[in-house]
């Protein structure tokens, strides 16, 4: 009987050995994270608002995490190319993506996605939200938003608006404008805000409902003229505070905006997610980041991974209704 008890205890200890080992080694492994550079995918071309956010945050993140942050621009497919690259990356915390409104609307705009919206991503953090800004070339005949609105109504299908790609905030802001104002602006998509704004500056496209972070320096430099902001209330940013809203300028009920947040691949360990969340949150409060983006309209609004997940789901539902009412068919 005593021998049987000894055998049973021995077997019990052997059974526990893997769990004891994991408990012992997991802390050192986590403590070592990150032990190499972290890649941040930007699903747009260099030069736009998302690229600016990623690169500016990346500098502070590198200091905090003691590893380099490598920005990998993967434009195209309405952010799907870059987002799919993240979905297929190892869930180890060494690959992230900067998501925008496009992430929330692609399920409603695309008949088929190469990834599962609900199963392939782990929310890390929301960085902030901002208005879009209606901008025209500095040489444009439209001096005010009222000028532009009158021309858009008087010339259906003759005026064009640029975006950084189908399904992006600039695209949907333009379509929402068409729907509420009864206009017919022609959409001209680009692979990123940089090339889109270049053609607005050059007059090849009439207008853009651009992210505030992408156009601030161009407005300050006199290359673009800002006409209005797209949020229901005027922006608290000193650079944008004097601009009227689209809603108060002849399109009642109009409301659109943009946001930036980080995702990791699904399955990334929660402790790693929390460490990234803390690093990005700290970086978003750094003087360098605040100076670079808050003056251009971005309202920093960080929180928990769970809060970001709920925010994105709410955005999916809100814009799905807009897309349906505007009769935007999935591609």
Provide tags for this entry.
D-Maltodextrin-Binding Protein, domain 2; 331 residues; 11 helices; alpha/beta; 6-stranded mixed beta sheet; globular; 45% helix; 5-stranded mixed beta sheet; 11 strands; 2 domains
Q: Give the biggest sheet.
A: 6 strands, mixed
Overall radius of gyration:
23 Å
Total number of distinct structural domains? 2
CATH architecture title of the largest domain: 3-Layer(aba) Sandwich
Name of the top-level CATH class of the largest domain? Alpha Beta
Can you identify the CATH superfamily of the largest domain? Answer: Bordetella uptake gene, domain 1
At a glance:
The chain is an alpha/beta fold. Helix content is 45%, strand content 18%.
How does this model look, in words?
- With 331 residues, the chain is of the alpha/beta class.
- The N and C termini lie far apart (73 Å).
- It contains eleven helices and eleven strands.
- It has two domains: 31-129 and 259-325, 3-Layer(aba) Sandwich (D-Maltodextrin-Binding Protein, domain 2), CATH 3.40.190.150; 132-249, Periplasmic binding protein-like II (D-Maltodextrin-Binding Protein, domain 2, 3-Layer(aba) Sandwich).
- The strands form two sheets. The protein has a six-stranded mixed sheet, with helices on both faces. A five-stranded mixed sheet has the order 7-6-8-5-9.
């Amino acid at each position: 009987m005593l021998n049987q008890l000894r055998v049973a205890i021995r077997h019990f200890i052997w059974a526990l050995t893997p769990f004891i080992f994991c408990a012992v080694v997991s802390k050192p492994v986590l403590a070592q994270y990150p032990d190499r550079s972290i890649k941040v995918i930007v699903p747009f071309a260099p030069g736009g608002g998302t690229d600016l956010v990623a690169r500016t945050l990346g500098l502070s993140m590198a200091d905090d995490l003691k590893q380099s942050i490598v920005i990998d621009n993967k434009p195209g497919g309405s952010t799907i190319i870059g987002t799919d690259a993240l979905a297929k990356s190892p869930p180890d915390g060494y690959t992230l993506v900067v998501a925008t409104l496009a992430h929330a609307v692609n399920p409603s705009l695309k008949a088929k996605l190469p990834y599962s919206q609900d199963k392939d991503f782990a929310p890390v953090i929301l960085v902030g939200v901002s208005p879009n800004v209606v901008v025209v070339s500095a040489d444009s005949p439209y001096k005010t938003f009222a000028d532009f609105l009158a021309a858009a109504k008087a010339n259906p299908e003759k005026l064009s608006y640029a975006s950084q790609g189908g399904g992006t905030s600039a695209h949907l802001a333009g379509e929402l404008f068409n729907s509420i104002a009864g206009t017919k602006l022609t959409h001209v998509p680009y692979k990123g805000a940089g090339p889109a704004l270049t053609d607005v500056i050059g007059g090849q496209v009439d207008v853009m409902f651009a992210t505030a972070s992408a156009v601030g320096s161009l407005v300050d430099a006199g290359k673009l003229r800002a006409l209005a902001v797209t949020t229901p209330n005027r922006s608290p940013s000193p650079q944008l505070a004097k601009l009227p809203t689209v809603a108060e300028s002849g399109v009642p009920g109009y409301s659109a905006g943009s946001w930036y947040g980080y995702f990791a691949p699904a399955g990334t360990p929660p402790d790693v997610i929390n460490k990234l969340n803390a690093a990005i949150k700290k970086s978003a409060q750094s003087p360098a980041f605040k100076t670079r983006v808050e003056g251009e309209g971005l309202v920093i609004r960080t929180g928990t991974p769970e809060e970001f997940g709920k925010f994105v789901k709410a955005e999916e539902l809100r814009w799905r209704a807009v897309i349906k009412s505007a009769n935007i068919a999935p591609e």
